Amino acid sequence: MAIAKNNSVKVAPGEAVGTVAAQSIGEPSTQMVLENFHQAGVVSAIRTKGLPRLIELVDARKVPKVATIEIWPEKAIMKDLAKVKALKKKIEEVKVKEVISDFDENFNNASMQLTLNKEKLAMYDLTDRGIVSKLEKIEGIEVSSADHVITVKIKKTKSADRSIHGIRVMFVKVRNMNIAGVKGVSNIGIETTDDGAYYLVAMGNNISGVLEIDGVDKNRVYSNDPFEVMRVFGIEAARNLIANELKDTMKVNGVDVSYRHLMLVADAMTFYGTIKSVGRHGIAGSKNSVFARAAYEETIKHFTNACVFGESDPLTGVAENILIGKQVKVGTGIVKLSIKKSDLKEIKGK
Amino acid sequence: MQAELIDHIRFTAVSPDMVKRMSVAKIIVPDTYNDDGYPIDGGLIDQRLGVIDPGLKCKTCGGRAKVCPGHFGHIELVRPVIHPEFAKTIYLLLQSTCKDCHRILLNEKQIGDLRPTIEGFVRADDNDKELGLQTSVESEDKNLSIIKKLKTVKKCPYCGAVQGKLKLDRPTFFYMNGNRLKSDEIHDWLAKISNEDLALLGIDGTVTRPEWFVISYLLVPPVNVRPSITLESGERSEDDLTHKLVDIIRTNQRLEQDIDAGAPQIIIDDLWELLQYQVTTYFNNETPGVPVARHRSTRPLKTLAQRLKGKEGRLRYNLSGKRVNFSARTVITPDNYISMDELGVPQKMAEVLTVPFYVTKWNIEYAKKLLSNTSYPTVLNHISKDGTRKRVADMNREELLAALQPGDILDRQLIDGDVVLFNRQPTLHRISINAHIVRVLPGNTFRVHLASVTPYNADFDGDEMNMHVPQTLEAQAEARLLMNISTSIVSPRNGLPVVVALEDMLIGAYELTKDGAYYQKDEAARLLASVGVYELPKPSKDGMYSGKDIFSAILRDDLNFEYTDKKNPNNMAVIKNGRLVKGYISSKLIGKRGMLLLHIYDKYGPEEAKRFLNDVSKLAGRAVYTFGMSISMRDYYISSLEGERQKIISNTLSEASELLRKYKDGTLEPLPGYTKKQTYELEVFATLNIARSIAMKVILDSLTIDNKAMLMISADARGNILNFVQIGMFLGQQSVRGGRPSRGYNGRILPYFTRKDSNPMNKGFVKSNYIEGLGFIDYYMHAMGARDSAMGKPLVTAVSGYLMRRLVNAMQDFYVGNDLSVRDAGGALIETLYGGDGIDPMMEKMQ
Q: Within 13 A of A253's CA, how many CA atoms are on the CB side?
């Protein structure tokens, strides 16, 4: 707590900023709604919002419930709807099953015939050959095509799994094969900004895939998946993303929280060089105090492990000092009161 | 004021030697009291283990109950048993070592590879914080992967013995190639593992030896830990732990007898297994794979692990949180005639609660006066210099008075001006606890100033709050200087004011300062007198006094401030040299997010902001008191708006049917990620929802603040336009689970509708309002929406409560260092400069 009288706006040393940040996020979260979509007015791309999103971020879930990616076209084509639509077509994932009208599986000779839909092929600018060449990348199958019918056959090698289950797995894999667009990027919607520029919002998180597409503004690709951002851009970017996503989540709920608190959470989560969750498997579980961990969750496990490894509790944190009844080492607990010798003499008399 | 400081606490397993050294008695009798009700020697309530009955003396230390801390005893088990919690570790150790030579199953080269990372570990644990704070993540992983592979080693690299197949049958049974490994065999195996080999597994053999995980000497906790209770009937009831220990001794005795009698091996093994079961449940009665030990009444026994675990366990219930003395709790009621940082304390409480008064040569006269009082502000206890404590009564008052000297401590009753902490649960905030100054008042409730209610999130519908009286001078000083409610005027969450003027104060401030508000001399004088100003300002016209001038009396002369609301330019104020020259005082200045309040806090500090709020509440309170403020049903039901109402409803309905037409035509463009049906439902829901917003706009445009309900709304005093719409126009679309009600009968919500009827009214669009009343269908729809939102509330509370616990637990150790960097408990650098600029979020919004 800073005192305004001194006209100082700096934090006071000792301030328990962690607790304040936690409370600043936790307190308004009691007023948030649990439902994902609770918004009157315009319906736009679905994203996890409110409390569920907050928990998702803080839990550091490996895969977010709904991963979205924002793709901005390059400046030159930003306002040209036709070109943006073309870009959309280039990015949107097309799977084999989306361009076939029928398929026929034969388990006797482990082959499958895919009948292609001509209209769909034209829609996605695809050719038989193109699809065949893509499918050939899958190991263990032979692909041939004739008159819009593609035949897929599982090779008779030793390693090939020719059980019914194995055949089925392979065929499903073939039908789910990506043949155009960026893998995992689907349901692309075109959105407009106030000044008439278009951009794309899609489901999926494949940043590195999107970055390879021409016409995409490489500096503005944005995904809400912290792990993907960490893989592509590094931990600092992930840290910024977490803080930013926290900020947006709070803002959507009409909660005003200082960015400093959110940054602290993001910093704590990314401190170890990888994204750690806030709960027992993350930051709270990796504290170096046995008592602090035991008082939080999994009490018995922490105590027995501490005994096995002869661990010693340095008693530096808050929880453990409360436990043993010592003064806590934050706030006024880190300063000592002292008095001038001369003053003491004066008070004591003599 | 701490006598001894604990530096660190080391955890180890307890060795048999340690047990023998700790133990004061060997427990051999599986019973507690004899027929005379006297503890049996060598029994579980042996008097050497300490005493709990008043009147008895501990045979070890000679202390009586309350003085004697209790002493441990021990049970000698005839056959060793596995400690259930360590079974997993034992399994790992057996897997990692040779069955014949008991060396670790690593060759010299592998050990050489491992060593550097192991040394990193050792160094980190040696309290050498600077050097090896964190071993890098990679080396830890590498370590683990090598050790995990040890179970796949088939041949010992040292003696060449072929390793058998080891199996752990949870919780405590080990098999080698299908044959049971007896606990004593395991003990001997573990005992032969060398400290060097253990170090490779991260275990320090000089601290914890693995053979200690196999128990042959069982520690018996002192009776203080497991007190027996005497029921009203005079019957004694023993603690669960005692029950379990009785079982252990009994089984142990039977086993011993059978062994001595040379019983067949099968019988001995069975009993041995039973002993293992008793010990397992003694440690943890929730061990997976083990039947739960039960009390006679089939209630599961609460054994050691259950005592520690969870919310009601020792750690969280008794150690992290404690019951306190010097506290009080009662209902809160509002009182705007005390200061914002005061707390009206009932006289009855003040008479019971005490504050230590340290007698010095400077205050001894006052102390004597207090001590001589026979009623209210008096002294309850006297603690003399040597620490003897005496209750002050009329009998010994004179005597104590005569002997009073500096260095004595008096327990004085709570009086006006004392500092107390005031708190409301749930304490989600640091501003949910603040210091207040005591004001002893008649009555039975805590009196709270209205302005200070927001940080506690309290209201007066029966809320109770807690008060704590800090006892040490240090605590009192901190409370006064750092925790006073005036320091919570600005929220640490976002730097905006939370202790603000509300309700009547806002209406009063508006009525007082609006353009054209002029008062007669007597009225003006009364208003000013309410804030202790006894000089009239200059009359402005016809000898009348302007409300703005009256308000200016509570502004500091050097205050300059300007404010214009961006959305509503009429809402503005200009203060020049402490005079409100233009505009009026609105909620934007003194209410939530009040910029004037923030400016005063910034410029003059919390004390002045507090004074300002106090004065505003008194002056504005006096103002509403003078004008009066009341609303009626007529304010809400505007017949001239009936046409508008019908228009909005019919427009909305036709828009909805247009959407339906599009959907049926198939021309409705689906949103990405949705089917057409979902898209239709979403858009209809959105369209029907918007009806209310349109109605809100209509009301906002057509009504002025001559309508008192509108005055309340626009002054931010109470209510919002949505309330107005629902009272006077229509309720609008009800929502269940984030959409239109959709469940109930086949193809319809209620049996009164035809199936698949797309009429919005049949899916929760309510046309009626609160004044005209709801028809039964509307009523039902409204009840569905209300129930849905009521059901959601406890769920959100539980989820967000856990989120908060996790966040706090993860970050509670973070503090700002002298260099404004953020550190955790181990000194690790979380942020190099707090927030990137070192600025306190409380000060963030100040100019």
A: 26
> Is the CB of B482 less than 8 angstroms away from the CB of A1?
yes
Among B5, B11, B799, beta carbon nearest to A290: B11
Distance of CA B118 to the CA centre of its chain: 40
**Cβ–Cβ of B834/A17 closer than 8 Å?**
yes
CATH of A94-180, one of 3.40.50.360, 3.40.120.10, 3.30.1360.140, 3.40.50.620: 3.30.1360.140
Task: Note whether B310 contacts A: Cβ–Cβ < 8 A.
Answer: yes
- Per-residue pLDDT band at B130 (split at 50, 70, 90): very low
Partners of A49 on chain B (C-beta within 8 Å) are none
Instruction: Name the residue of chain A whose CA is nearest to B598's CA.
Output: A4
Residue B192, H or E segment:
none
Where do we find the tokens 């209510």? Answer: B719
Pair B482, A2: CB distance under 8 Å: no
| Chain B stretch 416-435, residues whose beta carbon is closer than 8 A to a beta carbon of chain A | 426, 428-430
Q: Are A113 and A127 in contact (CB under 8 A)?
A: no
The predicted-structure confidence for A104-136, as pLDDT tens digits, reads as follows: 888 777 788 878 877 777 777 777 777 788 777
> Domains of chain B (ranges plus CATH)?
83-212 (no CATH), 229-320 (no CATH), 323-349+416-488 (2.40.40.20), 354-413 (3.30.1490.180), 504-627 (1.10.274.100), 633-780 (1.10.132.30)
Per-residue pLDDT of A91-110, as tens digits, reads 888 888 778 887 888 877 77
A82: contact with B, CB 8 A cutoff: no
Which fold would CATH assign to domain A289-334?
A: DNA polymerase; domain 1 (1.10.150)
Count of beta carbons in the 10 Å neighbourhood of residue A298: 13
Provide the ipTM: 0.86
The alpha carbon of residue B630 is apart from the nearest alpha carbon of chain A, in Å, by 31
* A11 closest CB neighbour out of B672, B804, B838: B838
* Whole-number Cα distances in Å, B82 to B164, B170, B208, B293, B731: 21, 12, 16, 18, 68
Nearest to B587 by CA among B697, B505, B490, B495: B505
Q: CA-CA distance, B81 to B243, in Å (whole number)?
A: 19
| B652–chain A nearest CA distance, Å | 13
Report CB contact under 8 Å: B813, A330.
Answer: yes
Is A267 in the B-facing interface, judged by CB distances under 8 Å? yes
- For A68-92+184-223, CATH number? 3.30.70
